[in-house]
Write a structure and sequence with these properties.
It is elongated and about 70 Å long. The longest helix is centred in the C-terminal third of the chain and has 16 residues. It has a domain of 212 residues: 3-Layer(aba) Sandwich (Rossmann fold). Helix 7 runs parallel beside helix 8. The chain has nine helices and six strands. Helix 4 links the parallel strand 3 and strand 4. The chain is of the alpha/beta class and 395 residues long. The two termini are 26 Å apart. A six-stranded mixed β-sheet has the order 2-1-3-4-6-5, covered by helices on one side.
Length: 395
């Protein structure tokens, strides 16, 4: 059973590993439509809100008894724990954030169902740092163990999806708790030396309709090399000096490189937010789906922006397949083996074409050329909300 199912990335990966999704708790209207469109056999549970589901949902609603569910999985909303959240007016508040009530609700459902394994996928800050959810989760798991004589033990590791064959860098914490206390070990990375590239993922696509750039800054994209961002147009880059070094956010005018995995796909990009295609345009929906490792028969519903939001919020299905296979072989069917590579792993394409060199900046930007102040240095720029001086390391 999945919570915060979204457009089904984690479930899609678990399905590829051999697990059956028996229920989904998802409140977003468009995500529910996408699930109905792509997997009508998956039961959309009611209440659809996790907070209400924690009060009313019972194993019998899925035709199960307590303890019969194999896996309960989900990724609670990450904003309270996200590094990006520390720059907002309210700051990164962790379990003090109202949105963190969903973590409480997820653990309520763990206690209701007592599954054989619990899987949580989230941003790295979810289980480390001064505002992490780790102390709360460990305390609550301990209480469940005392009341129900279970032996849930939390095992967590921060991983980069690109290390497992996803053509996209995406750092996430994978936390697994097993009811019988069986240690869960995340498989070792297999693609650290020669990763699946953006070209492998989307180089063979020939899209009939392509999204167009919006906003004046994107006129500069042809003047930035593949794999670079606005910093090419600073004093420390190779182009004209239009910006101060490190004075913009990293993904500003960021372009894909054919020979590298993509950078993390955002859920709500601005008009100048990358990664952009090496052909100097936004990525199409299908290209973003490929970079997330969704199969080609998966189609989110809604407008372009609505589809981008669903894709950017998803867990890469291939990462889900890797986790699912490990769960099966270590916990659910100990000793089970797979005779072939992960099914969602994309094959490599032929030789990667040469990068197109950048061109001079458009004439209407020439008046901007000149010396610009750089960022003042670590700790001297705009300050995030004050954080603790230590971090909790989880491995």
């Amino acid at each position: 059973m999945s919570l915060f199912t979204g457009t089904g990335g984690l479930d899609c990966g678990f399905e590829a590993a051999g697990l059956e999704t028996v229920g989904c708790v998802e409140v977003d209207r468009l995500c529910r439509r996408s699930l109905e469109e792509n997997r009508p056999s998956w039961k959309l549970l009611n209440p659809a809100d996790v907070l209400l589901a924690a009060e009313f949902l019972r194993p019998s609603d899925l035709g199960l008894t307590q303890g019969e569910l194999d896996v309960l999985a989900g990724g609670p909303p990450c904003q309270p724990f996200s590094v990006a959240g520390q720059w907002t007016s309210s700051g990164r508040r962790g379990m003090d954030d109202e949105r963190a009530r969903t973590v409480v609700a997820m653990l309520d459902l763990v206690e209701t169902f007592l599954p054989r394994a619990v899987v949580i996928e989230n941003v790295a800050g979810f289980l480390r740092g001064a505002v992490s959810a780790l102390p709360f989760i460990e305390n609550r798991i301990g209480r469940i163990n005392r009341l129900h004589r279970t032996n849930y033990q939390l095992h967590a590791r921060v991983v980069d999806a690109a290390d497992y064959g996803v053509p996209q860098h995406r750092r996430r914490v994978i936390a697994v708790a097993t009811r019988e206390g069986v240690p869960f070990v995340m498989p070792e990375p297999t693609f650290t030396e020669r990763r699946i590239t953006s070209w492998d993922a989307i180089g063979d696509l020939n899209e009939a309709v392509l999204p167009e750039c919006k906003g004046g800054w994107t006129d500069l994209l042809p003047s930035i090399p593949e794999g670079a961002n606005y910093q090419y147009l600073t004093a420390r880059g190779g182009g004209s000096e239009l910006f101060g070094y490190r004075t913009r956010y990293w993904s500003f005018l960021l372009k894909l490189a054919k020979n590298l995995p993509s950078w993390t796909l955002p859920a709500s990009p601005g008009p100048s937010t990358g990664p952009f295609h090496w052909c100097n345009r936004p990525l199409s929906v299908r290209e973003q789906m490929r970079l997330q490792s969704f199969p080609d028969d998966w189609h989110p519903v809604g407008s372009y922006r609505e589809q981008v939001r669903q894709i950017g919020n998803a867990t890469p299905p291939l990462l889900g397949e890797i986790i699912g296979r490990a769960l099966i072989s270590q916990v659910l069917v100990p000793g089970a083996t797979y005779t072939r590579d992960a099914t969602l792993l994309r094959p490599r394409l032929d030789a990667i074409p040469m990068a197109v060199p950048p061109v001079p900046i458009p004439p209407h930007f020439e008046a901007m050329i000149g010396e610009k102040p750089a960022h003042l240095g670590t700790g001297r720029g705009p300050a995030p909300r004050r954080m603790s001086r230590y971090e909790i390391e989880v491995d």
